[in-house]
Amino acid sequence: MIIKDSTFFTECILGLGDGKLPNVSLECEEGSWWIKIPNGLLIPDSDNHVASVVSNTYPDLTNRYTDPDYLRNRGSLTLTNQTVDEIDSYILNVIPWDTTTYLSSDSICKPFGKVFDQDMMFPVEFLNSLKFPRLLNHELHLKIGIPIILLRNINPSAGFCRET
């Protein structure tokens, strides 16, 4: 959802909650059960949905991606991490500079006990394909100038603190 005018968005959400938005009925239905979302809250339809979201959320991104005030006032709310990954990947492709890829560890600890060849049960390709909420994927792609948000304190003495 792209919110270009927060006052307009707030009024629409409050109107929805209070039942004040006009109802619309479809031709095949008897009652009015639907509401019409105001055009100011919609992104125009296109063949490339991710490009539409990015261009509407971040107009002039290639020239302003290093401006903290520009980025601070924008964001996308998605339902799945897969959609987040698609948007992030698209933005990384739009931004100039070379991409540096960092890989996670791709092995498991040796088992304790009598389980032999447990490491053979989990091939490296399988371990690299796993995705978990709140954990980074196996591959982390970064570019010079792209902001990141740390979710954990990595090295506070060096300034690598969460939410910075």
From TrEMBL:
InterPro entries with a match to the protein in the record: Pif1-like_2B_dom (IPR049163)
Q: Which residues form the DNA helicase Pif1-like 2B domain?
A: 125-161
Judging by the UniProt lineage, the source's domain of life is Eukaryota
Q: What is this protein called?
A: DNA helicase Pif1-like 2B domain-containing protein
Whose protein is this, by species? Dipteronia sinensis
